[in-house]
TrEMBL record:
Oligomeric and partner information: Component of the RNA polymerase III complex consisting of 17 subunits: a ten-subunit horseshoe-shaped catalytic core composed of POLR3A/RPC1, POLR3B/RPC2, POLR1C/RPAC1, POLR1D/RPAC2, POLR3K/RPC10, POLR2E/RPABC1, POLR2F/RPABC2, POLR2H/RPABC3, POLR2K/RPABC4 and POLR2L/RPABC5; a mobile stalk composed of two subunits POLR3H/RPC8 and CRCP/RPC9, protruding from the core and functioning primarily in transcription initiation; and additional subunits homologous to general transcription factors of the RNA polymerase II machinery, POLR3C/RPC3-POLR3F/RPC6-POLR3G/RPC7 heterotrimer required for transcription initiation and POLR3D/RPC4-POLR3E/RPC5 heterodimer involved in both transcription initiation and termination.
Cross-referenced InterPro entries: HRDC-like_sf (IPR010997), Rpb4/RPC9 (IPR005574), Rpb4/RPC9_sf (IPR038324), RPC9 (IPR038846)
GO cellular component: RNA polymerase III complex
Domain of life from the UniProt record: Eukaryota
SUPFAM superfamilies, A to Z: HRDC-like
Molecular function, one GO term: nucleotide binding
Name this protein carries in UniProt: DNA-directed RNA polymerase III subunit RPC9
Length: 69
């Protein structure tokens, strides 16, 4: 993986959770990825306990205009 453009956009916790859910299928149990899988699992656990677990992209889209100054 390569960073193409730095800081182009921010991700919400909801978007991160959706991404991690989609990547779960691709988890491999190789020794090299063991620590990464631990971090991903703990991140998913944290996000499932946060409001991100009940949010969706429609809710985020409605919120963004309200946050503009």
């Amino acid at each position: 993986m390569e960073v193409v453009q730095k800081r182009v956009a921010m991700l919400t916790n909801c978007e991160v959770l959706e991404f991690l859910k989609s990547q779960k299928k691709d988890e491999k149990s190789s020794e090299k990825l063991k620590m990464l899988n631990t971090v991903v699992r703990e991140t998913r656990k944290y996000l499932h306990a946060s409001p991100a677990a009940t949010q969706n992209s429609d809710m985020i889209e409605q919120l963004l205009p309200k946050l503009k100054p």
